[in-house]
Structure formats: C-alpha cells, structure tokens
C-alpha cells in the first residue's frame, strides 16, 4: 500500500520592494531514486523495459518529495530573504543592494547543491512580477489582470442552471434532484450576478 506524503506546503508570502525570481530546470530530475526503489518506476516501450534512476513527473509523492528537498537545501534562507515553492524561488529585500546580496547567497547555495536554474525563466532585480499566478510587488499580492480578462468578458449566467461548472454537468440531474430535496422552496432567493469591474 502506498501512503501519500502529507508534507504541508506554505502559502504565498508578502512581497517587499525588490524581487528576483529563479526557476530550476528539470526540477524533479535533480533527485536520485534509491536503487532499491527503482523497480517501482519500471515502464515498457517498444525498445524494452526501463526504470527511472531519477525522480520523474507523475510519481505519486514526487511533488512533496521535491518540496521537502528544496526546503532542506534553503532552510536557513527561508522567510529571511527568500521563499521557494517547488522549482520557483523568489528572493526579496527592502533595497537593491540587500536584494543583490541575498541573490548572491541563493545562487551560491544553488552552485553548492548542484541545482541547475533555467536562465530563460529567471527575472532579476524587478519591482514586481508574476509569482505562482499572482502579481507580487511592494503593494502586496494582487490578481493578475491577464488571468481574469477572459472570465470578466464572459456573459453573466441567466440562471443557476447555467452557473453549474461544466465538469459536473454530466451529473447535473442527480445533483439538482438532491439539492431540490434538501432545499425548501421558501429559502430560495433570487441571485443577483455581479462581476468585477476594474
């Protein structure tokens, strides 16, 4: 029986004035799989049977294992000058010089632990940036406008029926019947649809 790794991943942090975003490349491939566990990753293809020697995407506990590895590499720098979520690192400071110093410490740690960064995805010394899908700056954490433009351009639903998420539509009749049985008609209210206007 395989038990899930319940390692808790933290929330997005509050940003300061200067940021440097780094992204590791081939993130999971940095972690070796113990020889006694490699048989669990065996797969077949037209060329034969193979087993991974390094952790790959799709393994059950790969995300938690990788996050735990990143936390152990940068444990003394976390919440002091950087945050790490999977392969995304964010280095921050109040001033340009302090951010440059913190970035040097993080890059030195990457070199010492043989962690390879994807230079094309790195952004250095910026005052704002997209971190885990949110716009982070000295103002705090904001919604990325590019993410909500598509949603805000959709027409408002005319009924509750139209508001049901498409993923659940194949079970819609059963879910509506259950809701009808459990909801007295006197407690139903008219919905007023509002949307965000910037």
Outline the structure in words.
This protein is an alpha+beta fold and 198 residues long. Helix content is 26%, strand content 19%. It folds into two domains: 18-144, Alpha-Beta Plaits, CATH 3.30.70.270; 149-187, no CATH class. A four-stranded antiparallel β-sheet has the order 4-5-1-6. Strand 7 (128-131) and strand 8 (134-137) form a beta hairpin. Residues 28-134 form the Reverse transcriptase domain. This is Retrovirus-related Pol polyprotein from transposon 17.6.
Strand content: 15-25%
Structural class, judged by helices and strands?
Answer: alpha+beta
CATH topology of the largest domain: Alpha-Beta Plaits
Helix fraction by DSSP (H/I, runs of at least 4): 25-40%
The largest sheet, given as strand count, sense and whether it forms a barrel, is: 4 strands, antiparallel
Number of strands: 9
Low-confidence stretches: 9-17
Distance between the termini: 51 Å
- When the domains are counted, the total is 2
Write the layout of secondary structure elements.
Layout: E1 18-23, E2 43-45, E3 48-50, H1 62-73, E4 82-85, E5 88-93, H2 96-112, E6 123-126, E7 128-131, E8 134-137, E9 140-143, H3 145-152, H4 160-163, H5 172-182
Antiparallel strand pairs: 1-5, 1-6, 2-3, 4-5, 7-8, 8-9
């Amino acid at each position: 029986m395989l038990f899930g790794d319940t390692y808790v991943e933290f929330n997005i942090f509050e940003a300061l004035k200067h940021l440097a975003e780094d992204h590791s490349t081939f993130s999971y491939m940095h972690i070796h799989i113990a020889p006694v566990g490699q048989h669990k990753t065996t797969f077949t293809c037209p060329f034969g049977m193979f087993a991974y020697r390094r952790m790959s995407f799709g393994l059950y506990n790969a995300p938690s294992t990788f996050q735990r590895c990143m936390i152990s590499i940068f444990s003394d720098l976390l919440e002091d000058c950087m945050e790490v979520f999977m392969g995304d690192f964010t280095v921050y400071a109040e001033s340009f010089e302090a951010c440059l110093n913190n970035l040097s410490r993080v890059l030195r740690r990457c070199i010492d632990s043989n962690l390879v960064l994807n230079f094309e995805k790195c952004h250095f010394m910026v005052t704002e940036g997209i971190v885990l899908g949110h716009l982070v700056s000295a103002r705090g954490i904001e919604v990325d406008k590019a993410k909500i433009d598509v949603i805000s351009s959709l027409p408002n639903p005319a009924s509750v029926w139209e508001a049901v998420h498409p993923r659940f539509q194949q079970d819609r009749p059963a879910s509506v019947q259950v809701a009808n049985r459990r909801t007295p008609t006197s407690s139903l209210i008219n919905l007023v649809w509002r949307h965000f206007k910037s």
